[in-house]
């Protein structure tokens, strides 16, 4: 089968590799669509990060480069391993792409399996990936989506789960006012979750095209250009002078972080979703005097079922966020190049491995 293989920084090759066997306790999935994630771009530009190198194996998967990429995937079950009885061939599914040590508690009661030692991701750290025609995944990480969610929409459930987990980390509730900095894929999908949960959303974003996407999708009630708008002043105006209840940082840009600190009300909650490649500065006195609650968030934990239900129930429409569908052969030229050099023109580019 065809697969996109990560060899090293700047070196991704589409190759023919064997179809992975469907072993006991696993599910064989024919991949329909796989999204290109910002993490994939970081691996290409700056990696290996989550990907292993050719000389250093991942601590859990035991694999070295090359590994198959792709962790935002949807597909159809084509085979069931021995012992898997609660799915059937033909089921539409998505993957929660974790690689964890055996013995980690991944039950419904766990709130921290995503923070366990040596955690890795399917499609980055080994065990196949969604940028291939087929993948075999342990049953625990396979989530059925029912028949009313199109498979292209379903490929966005993984990044949508990032936004859902961030919402849960914020302790936000219906009636709150939230400011999001950054209208990239995660900022927009976080906004979609917040709106579905009854929270009023404002987004600050310098890119005109991304502001337009925030407006036309309807996920934000208010959209600001931080280059020309007094974002803090506008937020206070819209909240009767008190400030935002919630802030979500989705840029890894210092001025955006500073804006959130100033725009939040006293006792407000600031959730940092972006991955920072450098140290940030914090005016600690503002944090103290406003009693701001600063929280980090990474990925998701027992989030997929609730996220899928939001889509199944029609509370979130994922179609507007899909801005392109390409084949594996165009992964670098049509996918990575667009998202690296012309990222204002795209939100989520999907790969159909059979095009």
Description:
By secondary structure, the protein is an alpha/beta fold. Strand 15, helix 8 and strand 16 form a beta-alpha-beta unit. It folds into two domains: 2-156 and 318-352, Quinone Oxidoreductase, Chain A, domain 1; 162-296, Rossmann fold. Helix content is 26%, strand content 26%. The strands form four sheets. Strands 3, 5, 6, 9, 10, 17 and 18 form a seven-stranded mixed β-sheet that branches. The chain has helices at 38-46, 151-154, 157-170, 185-196, 208-216, 231-238, 254-263, 284-290, 304-312, 331-341, and strands spanning 2-8, 11-16, 26-35, 67-68, 72-80, 92-95, 98-99, 120-121, 134-138, 142-144, 177-181, 200-204, 222-224, 244-249, 264-272, 293-296, 322-327, 348-352. It contains ten helices and 18 strands. The mean pLDDT is 96.
């Amino acid at each position: 089968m065809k697969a996109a293989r990560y060899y090293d920084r700047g070196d991704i090759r589409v190759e023919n590799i064997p179809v992975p066997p469907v072993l006991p306790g696993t599910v064989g999935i024919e991949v329909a669509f796989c999204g290109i994630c910002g993490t994939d771009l970081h691996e290409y530009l700056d990696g290996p990060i989550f990907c292993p190198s050719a000389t250093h194996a991942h601590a859990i998967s035991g694999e070295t480069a090359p590994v198959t990429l792709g962790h935002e995937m949807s597909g159809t079950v084509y085979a069931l391993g021995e012992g898997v009885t609660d799915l059937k061939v033909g089921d539409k599914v998505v993957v929660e792409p974790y690689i964890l040590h055996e013995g980690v508690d991944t039950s419904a009661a766990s709130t921290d399996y995503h923070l366990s030692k040596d955690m890795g991701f399917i499609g980055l750290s080994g065990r196949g990936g969604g940028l291939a025609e087929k993948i075999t995944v342990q049953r625990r990480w396979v989530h059925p989506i029912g028949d009313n969610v199109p498979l292209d929409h379903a490929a966005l459930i993984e990044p949508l789960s990032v936004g859902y987990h961030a919402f849960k980390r914020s302790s936000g509730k219906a009636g709150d006012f939230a400011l999001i900095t950054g209208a990239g894929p995660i900022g927009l999908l976080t906004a979609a979750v917040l709106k579905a949960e009854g929270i009023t959303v404002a987004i600050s974003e310098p890119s005109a095209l991304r502001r337009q996407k925030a407006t036309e999708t309807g996920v934000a009630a208010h959209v600001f250009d931080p280059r020309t708008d007094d974002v803090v002043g506008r937020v206070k105006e819209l909240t009767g002078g008190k400030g935002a209840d919630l802030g979500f940082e989705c840029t890894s840009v210092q001025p955006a972080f500073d804006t959130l600190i100033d725009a939040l009300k006293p006792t407000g909650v600031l959730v940092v979703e972006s991955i920072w490649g450098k140290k940030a500065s914090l005016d600690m006195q503002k944090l103290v005097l406003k009693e701001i609650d600063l929280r980090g968030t990474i990925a998701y934990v027992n989030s997929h079922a609730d996220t899928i239900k939001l889509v199944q129930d029609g509370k979130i429409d994922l179609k507007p966020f899909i801005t392109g569908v390409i084949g594996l052969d165009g992964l670098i030229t049509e996918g990575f190049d667009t998202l690296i050099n012309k990222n204002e023109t795209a939100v989520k580019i999907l790969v159909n491995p059979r095009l």
